[in-house]
Amino acid sequence: MVRLNLLSVEVNKPDLWNDSVHAGKISREHGALMGKMKEVKAFEQELLEHIEMIKLAREENDSELELESVKALVSMRRDSKVKEIEALLAGENDSCSCYIEVSLIYCFDFFECIDLFV
């Protein structure tokens, strides 16, 4: 939110477009953050609606509606985990290719194993 507020102030400056490269960068970042905020607010609203539907379904003994809402919440949980991983991997170098090599080494002696890695 802090970054979004700073960008909003920057976007509203009258002299922003004096430097079109800088203005484009600021404008794109502001738009991207606004889109993410809109997505989060929509997710929050959907979550609250499903919780209310579950409460209503329990009051009305409507197991079908309750099951439907629970399934929707489970789906939302999956989506949130995907978004969490995307957020964790949103750093500058996270889009770079890499590989992991796993080797199985059998050692009879602890110090022999250490020597292999030193």
From TrEMBL:
<dbReference type="GO" id="GO:0006415">
    <property type="term" value="P:translational termination"/>
</dbReference>
<dbReference type="Pfam" id="PF03462">
    <property type="entry name" value="PCRF"/>
</dbReference>
<dbReference type="InterPro" id="IPR005139">
    <property type="entry name" value="PCRF"/>
</dbReference>
<protein>
    <recommendedName>
        <fullName>Peptide chain release factor domain-containing protein</fullName>
    </recommendedName>
</protein>
<feature type="domain" description="Peptide chain release factor">
    <location>
        <begin position="3"/>
        <end position="102"/>
    </location>
</feature>
<dbReference type="InterPro" id="IPR045853">
    <property type="entry name" value="Pep_chain_release_fac_I_sf"/>
</dbReference>
